[in-house]
Amino acid sequence: MDLWFLILVTLSVAVLLKATLNLLSSTAKTKNLPPGPPAFPVVGNFLWLRKSFAEMEPTLRSLHARHGPMVTLHMGPRPTIFVASQALAHEALVRRGAVFADRPPPLAADRVLSANQHEVSSSSYGPTWRLFRRNLTAEILHPSRLRSYSRARAWVLDILVAELKSQPGGVVRVVDHFQYAMFCLLVLMCFGDRLEEKQIKQIEEAQRRLLLGFQRFNVLNFWPRVTKIVLRKRWKEFYELIEYRNRVLVPLISARSKAKREH
Predict the structure, then answer these.
(1) How many CB atoms lie within 10 A of CB 226?
(2) Between these two residues, 78 and 87, which has the higher pLDDT value?
(3) Where is the signal peptide (predicted)?
(4) What does the pLDDT read at residue 44?
(5) Cβ contact 109:238 at 8 Å
């Protein structure tokens, strides 16, 4: 017990010193960042991560009122910039899109979650990302494709009405049924077929568990060599969720790819 306590104290002190030195050495590099609240090594990062999404919105409003339309928060291994101005967002994402289009290398947990940046929302700017974007716009977002899903929307509407009618009298949580109906539509648009209710529930459960664990698992991005020792149970839980998601999605993706090749 004493040995483990000594190891944990040593690691904690080392991490704190390293973070402090990194913060001091990066002052010159980050002096051009937008203003924001002062950064406190380690402690400040964890305090931000403890806030829920509901708590972040009023906090950001207050910070924008104090610091302006662009605010820098040190809420993770990298500084995060929040833009509240439509004009500035257009300037950064459209007029100077080529400058800001790329993404930094993924962090430890993000690398696993995004299959090493093999997603349209995480891939580095380049041929792979352009392929993902082309597939998304041509197969999902193109007006002709959206019109072709009219029967699917009617099918989902029938599911929603049937679910609402099947509920006993009293208070009904309509949001749950709307979420399930929309998930049915999204799954059909992704996999091109009407899946069984059991399969849809499995996909919904896999995605829901990962989303609910976002804040819980985001801390794994901090100094992975340390967290894999101190938070090894959380890393195990994270890998188990990723494995569960893969068991659910990979067979469906493989079947869809095979059907397209045969077609």
Answers:
(1) 15
(2) 87
(3) 1-19
(4) 52
(5) yes
